[in-house]
C-alpha cells in the first residue's frame, strides 16, 4: 500500500477536524506538498532528522508525510522540555532541522507533483522519546512498516471504517497520540482533535483514546455513552476499579490496553463490556505481535518492533540473538492472552522481601474512593526500604481504613506503612513518573493521609 492510493481513495473525505477547522484528505495532500517543497530546499539528505516541538500535530498534519516522502525522519518533541533534558538527547541524535512557526508554508504555492511512498518501507521514519520509566528518555527509531502495521491491525481490531470519527486528545509527542492519525489515515477515517475533554465530547464519535484521568472527567459530564460510540481505548496506567465499574454501568464500551513506544503503540487489548468484566488480566495479543516470557519478563517481537535506539549518533539494536526485545515489563502468558503485572525495575527489597509496587497499586485501586495510586520505596533504617503509597481520593478515607482494606488480601510486609495525598498539578507527559513522585516524597512535599 502506498500514500497516493490512500489519498486518491479518500480525497474528498474528512481527515481531520478541530473546533475551528477541517481538513480533507485532498487538503492534507496539498499541505504535505507544501511541506515537501519547503523541506527540499533545506539541504537535507535521506535519513536526516526533522524535529517539531508541539503538543498536537494539528497545526502541521502534513509535515510527517512530507518527511517520509523524502526519506527524512520525523521527531515530535514535547514543547515543555527544558534544555537540561534536550542536551543529552542531542548527544544521542543529530537533529538537522528544528521546524519553527515561521517555517509553516501556508503561503507557498502548491507544487504540481503527485508524490508517493511505500507505507510499509522498512527504513527509519519516526523518532519518539520513550517515557523514561528506566530513568531517562531514549530515542526510539520506528520504521514506516512498524507504524502502519500497528495502525492497520488495531484499526482492523476495532473495525474502523471510512468516515468514522476517532477522538484525539492525547499528545502527539507520545506514540499513543500520533498513532491515532495513522489509524485514521490508513482507513479513511477522521481525526477529531480537541485540547481536552473538559468542555464535553464532539458529536458522532465512534472511537476514543483516553487515559484514566480523562475518562473520569468525561464521566463527570456525560450520563451515558454516545449513541454511535463503539470503543473507548484506555491506556497509560492502571484503571481504577471504581472508574471502570461506573463506565460499564453507564454503558460505555471500554477496552484497556498494554503498549509501548518500542512496539509502535498497542500490543494487547482487553474488552471489559458485554459482559461486564472488571479484571484487567488476559488481554488479547494483536496480530503481528509475538510475545514470550523469560522468567516472568515480557519479550516482544514482530512487524511493529522498532529498529533500535539512537545512541551517540548511531542506531543500536536492543534485541537478543533471536530477535526478541526485553521490555522490562513483567507478566503472565496463557492461551495467547497477556497479563501485565509490573515493571522489573520498579521492584524493591524491604526487610529481605521482594516488593512489586504494581501489585499493591492494583489492590488500592479496587478500594472505593481511591482514584489513583503510586507505591514508592521510602528509606528505612531497619528494613532498608518500606513501601509507602501516594493516593488520589474521591472521598475522605483514613490511613487505618486503607490499611485494613489491604490487609484483607495482602501479607503484612506488602501493606504500605504510610499514605500521602496525590499532589496537585501535572507531571510532564500524560502520567506521573515514579522518580518525580519519589522526589516529591523525599523532599517532604507530600501531605500525609491521617
Supply the CATH superfamily name of the largest domain: ANL, N-terminal domain
Structural class: alpha/beta
Helix percent band: 25-40%
Beta-strand share of residues: 25-35%
Radius of gyration: 22 Å
Question: Helix tally?
Answer: 11
Estimate nothing, just give the exact number of structural domains. Answer: 2
State the CATH topology of the largest domain.
Rossmann fold
Quantity of strands, as a count? 25
In the CATH hierarchy, the architecture of the largest domain is 3-Layer(aba) Sandwich
**CATH class category label of the largest domain:** Alpha Beta
Main sheet: strands, sense, barrel: 13 strands, mixed
- Spans of at least 5 consecutive residues with low confidence: none
Classify the oligomer.
single chain
Q: Distance between the terminal alpha carbons, to the nearest Å?
A: 60 Å
* Spatial shape: globular
Quick structural summary:
The protein has helices at residues 3-10, 25-40, 63-69, 83-92, 144-157, 175-187, 212-221, 241-249, 357-365, 399-407, 434-442, and strands at residues 14-17, 22-24, 49-53, 73-77, 95-99, 124-129, 139-143, 165-168, 190-193, 207-211, 231-235, 254-260, 265-271, 283-285, 289-294, 297-302, 308-311, 314-316, 325-334, 337-343, 348-350, 353-355, 370-380, 384-393, 419-421. The chain has 450 residues and is of the alpha/beta class.
Amino acid at each position: 500500500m502506498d500514500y497516493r492510493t490512500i489519498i486518491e481513495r479518500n480525497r474528498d473525505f474528512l481527515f481531520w477536524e478541530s473546533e475551528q477547522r477541517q481538513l480533507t484528505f485532498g487538503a492534507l495532500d496539498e499541505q504535505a506538498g507544501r511541506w515537501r517543497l519547503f523541506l527540499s530546499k533545506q539541504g537535507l539528505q535521506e535519513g536526516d532528522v526533522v524535529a517539531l516541538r508541539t503538543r498536537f500535530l494539528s497545526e502541521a498534519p502534513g509535515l510527517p508525510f512530507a518527511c517520509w516522502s523524502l526519506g527524512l525522519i520525523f521527531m515530535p518533541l514535547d514543547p515543555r522540555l527544558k534544555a537540561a533534558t534536550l542536551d543529552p538527547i542531542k548527544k544521542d541524535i543529530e537533529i538537522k532541522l528544528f521546524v519553527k512557526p515561521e517555517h509553516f508554508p501556508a503561503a507557498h504555492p502548491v507544487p504540481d507533483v503527485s508524490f508517493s511512498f511505500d507505507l510499509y518501507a522498512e527504513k527509519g521514519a519516526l523518532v519518539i522519546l520513550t517515557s523514561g520509566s528506566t530513568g531517562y528518555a531514549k530515542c526510539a527509531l520506528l520504521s514506516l512498516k512498524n507504524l502502519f502495521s500497528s495502525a492497520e491491525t488495531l484499526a482492523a481490531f476495532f473495525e474502523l471504517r471510512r468516515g468514522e470519527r476517532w477522538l484525539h486528545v492525547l499528545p502527539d509527542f507520545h506514540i499513543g497520540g500520533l498513532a491515532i492519525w495513522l489509524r485514521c489515515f490508513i482507513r479513511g477515517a477522521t481525526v477529531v482533535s480537541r485540547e481536552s475533554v473538559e468542555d464535553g465530547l464532539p458529536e458522532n464519535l465512534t472511537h476514543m483514546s483516553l487515559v484514566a484521568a480523562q475518562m473520569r472527567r468525561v464521566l463527570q459530564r456525560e450520563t451515558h455513552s454516545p449513541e454511535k460510540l463503539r470503543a473507548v481505548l484506555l491506556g497509560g496506567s492502571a484503571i481504577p476499579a471504581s472508574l471502570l465499574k461506573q463506565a460499564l454501568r453507564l454503558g460505555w464500551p471500554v477496552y484497556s490496553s498494554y503498549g509501548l513506544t518500542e512496539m509502535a503503540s498497542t500490543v494487547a487489548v482487553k474488552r471489559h463490556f458485554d459482559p461486564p468484566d472488571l479484571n484487567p488480566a488476559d488481554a488479547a495479543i494483536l496480530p503481528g505481535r509475538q510475545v514470550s516470557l523469560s522468567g516472568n519478563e515480557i519479550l516482544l517481537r514482530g512487524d511493529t518492533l522498532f529498529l533500535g535506539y539512537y545512541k551517540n549518533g548511531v542506531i543500536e539494536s536492543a534485541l537478543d540473538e533471536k530477535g526478541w526485545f526485553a521490555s522490562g515489563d513483567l507478566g503472565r502468558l496463557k492461551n495467547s492472552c497477556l497479563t501485565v503485572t509490573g515493571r522489573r525495575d520498579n521492584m524493591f527489597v524491604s526487610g529481605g522481601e521482594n516488593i512489586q509496587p504494581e501489585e499493591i497499586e492494583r489492590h488500592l485501586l479496587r478500594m472505593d474512593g481511591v482514584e489513583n495510586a503510586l507505591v514508592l520505596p521510602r528509606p528505612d533504617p531497619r528494613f532498608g526500604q518500606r513501601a509507602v503509597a501516594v493516593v488520589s481520593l474521591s472521598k475522605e478515607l483514613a490511613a487505618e481504613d486503607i490499611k485494613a482494606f489491604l490487609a484483607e488480601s495482602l501479607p503484612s510486609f506488602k501493606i504500605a506503612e504510610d499514605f500521602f495525598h496525590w499532589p496537585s498539578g501535572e507531571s510532564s507527559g500524560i502520567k506521573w513518573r515514579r522518580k518525580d513522585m519519589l522526589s516529591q516524597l523525599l523532599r517532604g512535599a507530600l501531605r500525609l493521609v491521617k
